[in-house]
Amino acid sequence: DVFFNAATGEYVFSPSTSTGEIFISPDQVSIYPNPTNDKVTIDLGEVELGGELVVRIFDMAGKEVMSRTFTDSGLMSLNVSGLTSGLYIVNITDGNFFIGKRLSVSR
Questions:
Q1: 3-state secondary structure of 104
Q2: How confident is the model at residue 35 (pLDDT cuts 50, 70, 90)?
Q3: Is 60 exposed, middle or buried (0-12, 13-18, 19+ CB in 10 A)?
Q4: Is the four-CA dihedral 21, 26, 28, 31 of positive or negative sign?
Q5: Which of 43, 41, 40 has the alpha carbon at shortest distance from 29?
Q6: Which of 14, 52, 15, 10 is CA-nearest to residue 28?
Q7: Chain centre to alpha carbon of residue 58
Q8: CB–CB of 92/45 below 8 Å?
Q9: In what order do the strands lie in the sheet with 2-5?
Q10: Residue 22 pLDDT > 60, yes or no?
Q11: What b/e string do you get for 92-102 counting C-beta neighbours within 10 Å, with b at 16 or more?
Q12: What is the pLDDT of residues 63-77, one digit of tens each?
């Protein structure tokens, strides 16, 4: 299943399962403060993803500029002070679900 919001650039790719549907909306995941200049928190809220979570940040040209692995879902903190001002896409995955959110870095 694919959910894409063209207005915000947010997306979720999730597998269809024969035992039932698990639906995740990009609205359930928060990134704040946004815009930011140094640290950002990713809040998965009630979304329960399994195993390790990989958070990757891409610039608007599609180049990966940061990657970090977390063992806990819930609140995750990233230091983005090394990124230049601009728009980025944050990709969060557990290997099954892929969640994308937009991030603005301003100096």
A1: strand
A2: very high
A3: exposed
A4: positive
A5: 43
A6: 10
A7: 10
A8: no
A9: 2-5, 10-13, 98-105, 86-93, 53-59, 64-70
A10: no
A11: bbbeebbbbbb
A12: 999 999 998 767 899
Q: At 59, list the tokens.
A: 């610039």
Upper half-sphere CA count for residue 100 (Cβ side, 13 Å)? 19
Rounded to 5 degrees, what angle do the CA atoms 74, 27, 87 make?
90
Tokens of 31: 């990134």
* 88 three-class SS: strand
Residue 49: how many other CB atoms lie within 10 Å: 20
pTM of the predicted model as reported, rounded to 2 decimal places:
0.81
Side chain identity at 84, as an amino acid letter? T
Residue labelled with tokens 């790719």: 13
